[in-house]
Specification:
This protein has helices spanning 6-14, 22-33, 65-68, 83-106, 116-124, 126-140, and strands at 39-40, 51-53, 58-63, 110-115, 146-148. By secondary structure, the chain is of the alpha/beta class.
Length: 149
């Protein structure tokens, strides 16, 4: 049983944005402060990445743990109502993410996934933020094609 009415739930879900989310803004600011320059929401790159670093041919996606099903994460829960709908939604999201990663690899574009829970931890601790940004920079300079942080 949902604790909100269907109108309230609909209003909440409609307010969830796909661009310029708080985790994305936090991560962008940290990259910019380290001298990395990027383009936002590039439409000509498969998957319309949140950030695209042309110098490194790297697409960065800041994924919400709930929507993209971060394995083992406390934020990747399944709602108690309409479970069939949600399970189908999540399966489709995972399949789309996999297809996007394959399209990027075919175009020789590196793919970096930064999870929402990682960004939340970065916001809490400067030490964690510095470590994640250095891991990101290390990935940019490596030959590795795919990475999740």
């Amino acid at each position: 049983m949902d604790i909100k009415s269907s109108e309230e739930r609909s209003r909440n879900m409609a307010a969830i944005r796909s661009k310029d989310t708080k985790p994305e803004i936090i991560f962008r600011k940290l990259l910019f402060s380290k001298g990395l320059r990027y383009r936002k929401n590039v439409s000509y790159i498969p998957g319309h990445p949140d950030l695209y670093l042309a110098k490194y041919r790297t697409a960065i996606f800041v994924h919400g743990c709930f929507w993209h099903r971060h394995t083992g994460c406390k934020y990747a829960y399944v709602p108690k109502t309409r479970q069939d709908y949600w399970n189908n939604k999540f399966i489709n999201n995972i399949a789309r993410d996999r297809a996007v990663a394959e399209m990027l690899a075919a175009k020789n574009i590196k793919c970096l996934i930064v999870w929402e829970c990682t960004v939340k931890n970065m916001a809490r601790s400067a030490e964690i933020a510095n470590q994640v940004v250095s891991d990101c920079i290390q990935f940019l300079n490596s030959e590795q094609q795919y990475c999740e942080l």
